[in-house]
């Protein structure tokens, strides 16, 4: 009977081992099916009232309903977004603390000497969901009437100044890339935000505005500003008659500002995927699309892997460019 007992014991051990082997998969599935069980915090690295904040609240309100838990917006501005990003990077990787970013996140490693986090390895990409180009514009009474006039002015003895939303912002890099790509000069005048930058162009304190489409459109409609070009690869559906910089002869020029959601690194993939699916579903709603359109944003969606690829590619791109022109802002 001993052989049978041994066989029986071995069978029991194999059964137990097999059962234990299925536990991680079951646990991961249970994590996703029961998530969330408490409020979710979305950290915004800009002050309340701005474009990124508006996006966070719009999507957060919808997620609160679909997930059955409050989604709380937590504004943590400062250091071009690095303060909020560091907070999320060091938060528990459980899906309850998220970071909404724009492409400044991918620029910061190029222009700040010391970051207290690694933008490539300290986050799990969730989704990119919106984009907005910048507009190169001048006051309506400006002697610069066309993009060709701007290029000519930039190659003259008295090059124009351009106002950006701040050091290290996509608008700053858009201006610097234009200078290098078109072999021209412009004096960069950084502001602490897009609103004061455009206000000083309107007040003739700076010659050229490089600002988000969202901020620029109202002044185009009121004929206070005149658009020369958009910075994205393709024309904006909101300004279909305004050509791109590349169309106007600066080959390969493309600076688009994307928006997306990140989680701390090592957040369970099942939770990342659930968040991705819920945000994509929200973005596809006609009323959400309409609200984003009203704010001047084009909608887009991605898989986590696609968004991670975009973030990594942009970090590498801007690091190469910043090194080329020796650009540091701190």
Automatic annotation (TrEMBL):
Domain of life: Bacteria
Family according to the record: Belongs to the UPF0065 (bug) family.
Any one Pfam family match given in the protein's UniProt record, by short name: TctC
InterPro entries according to UniProt: BUG (IPR005064), Bug_dom1 (IPR042100)
Protein name (record): Tripartite tricarboxylate transporter substrate binding protein
């Amino acid at each position: 009977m001993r052989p049978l007992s041994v066989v029986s014991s071995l069978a029991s051990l194999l059964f137990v081992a097999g059962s234990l082997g299925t536990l991680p998969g079951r646990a991961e599935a249970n994590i996703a099916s029961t998530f969330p069980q408490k409020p979710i915090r979305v950290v915004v690295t800009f002050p309340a009232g701005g474009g990124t904040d508006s996006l966070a609240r719009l999507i957060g309100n919808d997620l609160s309903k679909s997930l059955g838990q409050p989604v709380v917006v937590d504004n943590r501005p400062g250091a071009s977004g690095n303060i909020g990003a560091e907070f999320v990077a060091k938060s528990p990787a459980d899906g309850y603390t998220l970071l909404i970013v724009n492409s400044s996140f991918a620029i910061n490693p190029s222009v700040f000497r010391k970051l207290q986090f690694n933008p490539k390895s300290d986050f799990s990409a969730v989704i990119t969901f919106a984009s907005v180009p910048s507009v190169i514009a001048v006051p309506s009474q400006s002697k610069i009437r066309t993009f060709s006039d701007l290029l000519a002015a930039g190659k003259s003895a008295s090059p124009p100044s351009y106002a950006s939303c701040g050091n290290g912002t996509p608008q700053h890099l858009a201006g610097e890339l234009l200078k290098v790509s078109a072999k021209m000069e412009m004096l960069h005048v950084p502001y602490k935000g897009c609103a004061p930058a455009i206000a000083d162009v309107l007040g003739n304190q700076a010659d050229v505005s490089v600002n988000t489409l969202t901020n620029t459109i109202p002044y185009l409609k009121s004929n206070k500003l005149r658009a020369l070009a958009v910075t994205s690869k393709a024309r904006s559906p909101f300004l279909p008659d305004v050509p791109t910089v590349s169309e106007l002869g600066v080959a390969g020029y493309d600076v688009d500002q994307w928006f997306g959601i990140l989680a701390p690194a090592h957040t369970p993939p099942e939770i990342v995927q659930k968040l991705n699916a819920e945000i994509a579903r929200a973005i596809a709603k006609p009323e959400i699309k309409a609200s984003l359109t009203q704010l001047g944003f084009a909608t887009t969606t991605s898989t986590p892997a696609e968004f991670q690829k975009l973030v990594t590619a942009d970090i590498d791109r801007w690091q190469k460019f910043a090194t080329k022109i020796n650009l540091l802002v701190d």
